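Lab meeting minutes (informal)
Scribe: AK
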Amino acid sequence: MEENSLIYGLELQARALTPQYGESNDVCFFIATNSLKPTNQLHLLQYDEEQGTIQSKIFEHALGEVWKLNSCPHDARLLASVYNVQKGAQVLSQAALLTLPEDDPNASNNEPLKSEYIPWAKVEVLDTASLGDRVKTIEFHPSQEQTIACVAGNKLAIMQRAESATRVVAEASSNSSGAKSVSSFTSGKWSHHHQGHQFVVLHDSSVRAYDVRDSQHCAWSIDDAHGQLVRDLDCNPNKQCHLVTGGDDGCLKVWDCRMVKAPVFERSDHSHWLWSVRFNTFHDQLILSSSSDCKVLLTCAGSVSSEAVPSDVSEASAQERHKVLSDGLLQTFDQHEDSVYCAEWSNVDPWIFASLSYDGRVIISKVPKQYKYQIIF
């Protein structure tokens, strides 16, 4: 058992996990089940470090099996779900915006629920019919509260939320930038930089960024970023132009989009597909990755992080910066017994993260103290 890790088990299979980004005080994560059984669930987990406990609130996700969750950074009660529904013999991927109910200060904690699940305040199924039947992700804009991006099939759609309904305002497709094929996008994320105008998508083994002001224009691309399919990416929130990718070749790579011929950092410590890669939002030298090899790895890419000391900085000012660990694999977390589809940092505490494997096991873990103390002291 790793130091102070906690396990939370679901009765059903699961592959969707996200921090509650709008929450600024408590360490909270959303998880959702991925079962063909009629009733899927969404759990809001609250981790209490002092007590060493996990409290949960459970909601029914009657729309279908959940493949992807994202929470809104501007509203702790709002999240986006991508799920499968069966229509006849066809399986479609759709998306919805889910709003949690407001906490009632007058309600008693001991008061029994009228049903097994807490009801939603609002459920808005997004109209993605024009984008095809394969929605991959819904991504909230980091600074514009009403703007979201939808990656579906071979299209990227920028949508605006409104009181009446969320609507598409701009669109790009994988064949609009001169691509030879029209195969589907895999996923995508907003860049934290470029004034919020760039959205980065994954396409086969390549990475592309679109300027949403001119959605037919590909701002930059990394062709053949991985030897096989690119599964996930994350943009460094603290260092412009840097992003990390993970792929089916088992590699983790950090890129500078201004110099795309080769990655600036690369590791291949996993033995199977990488499903998720995440920069620590506070100390971006720390990178989490999870894989079908049932492992979560903590890697240091200090030499290419925002905490790296430039060569022209004096020794005195360098000492005031956070210490940078040596590059390479820091720790292997191997408590999962199935493919680990998600590993996510807490947005509140930089030393805590959660990981989710397909068998429904959620593990909340901490960065080992030896590395934490090396960074902060």
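Next up, CB showed the second protein from the same session:
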Amino acid sequence: MIGKSTGEEECSRNQRKQTLIDEISDRLINGDMVAKIQAAREIRSMIRNRNSAGKIRVKFAGAGVIQPLVLMLCSQHHDAREVSLLALLNLAYRNDRNKEQIVTCGAIPPLLKLLKFQTTGNLRELATAAILTLSASPNNKQAIASSGAVLLLIQVLSCGMIQGRVDAVTALHNLTATEEEPAIDLDSAAALPLINLLKECKMYSKFADKVTGLIRILSKSDEGRLAITNAEDGILTLVETVEDGSLVSTEHAVSVLLEMCKSSRSKYRELILNEGAIPGLLRLTVDGIHEARDKARLLLDLLRESTAEKRMSSSVVEKMVHEIAAQVDGSTVETAQILLQDMVQRSMKMR
């Protein structure tokens, strides 16, 4: 009897929940603007405050709320746009099918309009968060990448609030995180805000991994490399990332420096050397991941002097030995000397 009573209570709760979902959905679909706004608020509240949020997302989507919420994004009513954005964000969270349906229902154009024209308040930040959430679904990437969102996200990088800038970086990262070639080409205007974000964040963080990954894409074009160089402390920030970054961000940073030097050794060699890149690169040849070690060695070859007459003085060598020994965890002076000797021997070979 107790088991039966418990089962009946559970069934009754589910029926009441479904009835409430149906009532809210009907008001959203058929009500006036005031009713729609209140219904959107209730959708968000039900998803946020229930343990069964995943099932509720599915039930609301099945009840047909996504299309009217997308239409509310086009409204001139500020509250309507805000509550519909919040409801859509909650519906999309951890549900790729809902993400894809939101895009299919036409959410991208009004979201881009909010990114473009909403320079005050929180609508632009919410729109950026929505683009981020939708871009997490693989099937949405091409539609977002081809919509013009990339340039608007780059603008958010430059002048958005801090959360908007973080969300913009992650959205851009999502659009490039494919097994194929990156889905987007980054404009060189992204270089300065990305370098500034890299300066401000913890270089060992997941966020730094994403930022350096985007800078790496920029470094594949002449315009991008020039913009990175022209950014204040641009090369220095990359050198510091090689020294202090995570395994991922370090590999990205050394790839950028290598791309620069390979594209024009005469243009970038001295710039990289002047920022003190050698100790970090030598350390990377010891404790970096395989790909990073190889790239560090290639970059060291490109940074070496081109003739035997331009060898480093013994005092410079001695200073570098002690610096490297202090920086390479667990190493001895002898280990650093071996590394440095190898580099010097390479530098004495003619091209």
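CB comment: The longest helix spans residues 2-30.
No objections, moving on.
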